[in-house]
Amino acid sequence: MAWRFALMIDPIAADTSRADLADTFTPVDPAAPALTVGELSTQRGDGIFESIGVVDGHAQEVGPHLERLAHSAQLCELPAPNAAQWRAAVELAAAHCGAGESVIKLILSRGVEHGPAPTAWVTAAEASDFSRARRDGISVVTLDRGYPLDVPARAPWLLLGAKTLSYAVNMAALREARRRGADDAIFTTTDGYVLEAPTASLILRRGDTFVTPAPTAGILHGTTQLSLFEHLEARGFAVAYETIPVDTLPVADAAWLVSSVRLAAPVTAIDGAALPVDAEFTASLNAYLLSPRD
Ligand code: PLP
Question: In which residue ranges of the chain is CATH 3.30.470.10 found?
């Protein structure tokens, strides 16, 4: 992976309006050390982040990503991000991305123990090549997430709807999926409902209706899923948020894992049972996702 840019941000209050933000940004060498050893994001995973897809220098869906960053900040009781400041930082990073696909990451950390708090930074890097996953698809296994559907309401301190930096569980689930011979995973609740993938949202097709698990279930509300639902509606399809029982997965007409950088990966099999893949339709979804979107 090639780094393209990194920028430390001195976060300003959400309600501050500043014409010139330049003195709140410090470009740094992305390959050089930049964080102090007291960083709580590295010590405890105590912070939030966003990954934004960039196509030919255009950062996709910046507004929805900044809205989700603000939502995560609220859930984690971090200071509200200043949208204009973060947007300016994303623009600076996008200007360094050039042709092809890149990924911009926004990180807002609790800060440094006994030091500046919060801390924030933005990075830009070349994206991995996901053309095979988009074209040939991915196999998935269902993995128990270990709690029932109603847990987010009962235990909000689990921060289930926030995109926190604590992704060790998500990465462990991906390793387990690979151990079981699959490419990816779909998390399920202990009472038998479908949630999301460790780094993507799930969309199912039933006839001309596209459904995804309701984000009230303590999953992330995916910006890619939101954007695709808008696109599918414009094409005349019906879309819906549902509580989806795991045992209905095999009867789906098609399924995709969708996310900001890999985009739409068609699911070829769930727990070893093959699922139909419509290559032409999937290509049309990815063509839309690769077009400039705001
Ligand atoms: N769910 C989880 C757990 C994720 O980590 C992600 C993205 O990384 C998504 C869903 C999809 O979100 P988006 O489409 O905004 O990338």
Answer: 3-126
- Residue 62, judged by CB atoms within 10 A of its CB (0-12, 13-18, 19+), counts as buried
Which H or E run includes 126? strand 119-126
Tens-digit pLDDT profile for residues 55-81: 999 999 999 999 999 999 999 999 999
Q: Is the CB of 200 under 6 A from ligand 1?
A: yes
User: What is the CATH number that goes with domain 3-126?
Assistant: 3.30.470.10
- pLDDT for residue 191: 97
Which of 60, 159, 163 to mutate for ligand 1's pocket (most ligand atoms within 8 Å of CB)?
A: 163
Q: Is any atom of ligand 1 closer than 6 Å to the C-beta of 201?
A: yes
The response to whether residue 196 sits with its C-beta less than 6 Å from ligand 1 reads yes
For 131-289, which CATH class? Answer: alpha beta
